[in-house]
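From the thread on structure requests for the teaching lab: each student submitted one protein with a one-line request. Submission from student K.M.:

"Model NIF system FeS cluster assembly NifU N-terminal domain-containing protein from Mycoplasmopsis columbina SF7, tokens only."
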Amino acid sequence: MSYNDAEKRDIIMSHYLKPKFKNLNLEEMGVEKFGESCSDYLKFSYQVENNTIKNLIFNGNGCAFFLASTDLLCEKLNSMTIEQSQQFIEVYEKFLQGIEITEDEKTTLGKLAVFDNVKKHHNRLNCCTMLTKPLKNELFNK
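Reply posted by the TA:
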């Protein structure tokens, strides 16, 4: 799926201004991450039930790319199995880095395909992977 510039802007701004998975009352227990190239701050929590991700929510502040990508990732990853999420995150990160992916893989990204220009702006890569980096560590390395 591809989007024109106006559609990309609308999707990013919508998820930046009104993120569906941002929870200001996130419990104290949670995973924290600070931006590597800017002042983005993320705290997230999740549950795993029957090998499936549930209640992946976040709180934080930062740029539009960070908040929009985090919200869209929560939308996609909630209800995925651990294995599905691992495959999805691999495709998403390859896409952001400009590594070629198949059309089917691009279709699975859904609205996350709006970040196709991130590969041209390295600092934005850090913003768009604020959730995936610590989540991978939590889900796949424990």
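TA comment: The CA atoms of residues 72 and 111 lie 7 Å apart. The mean pLDDT is 94.
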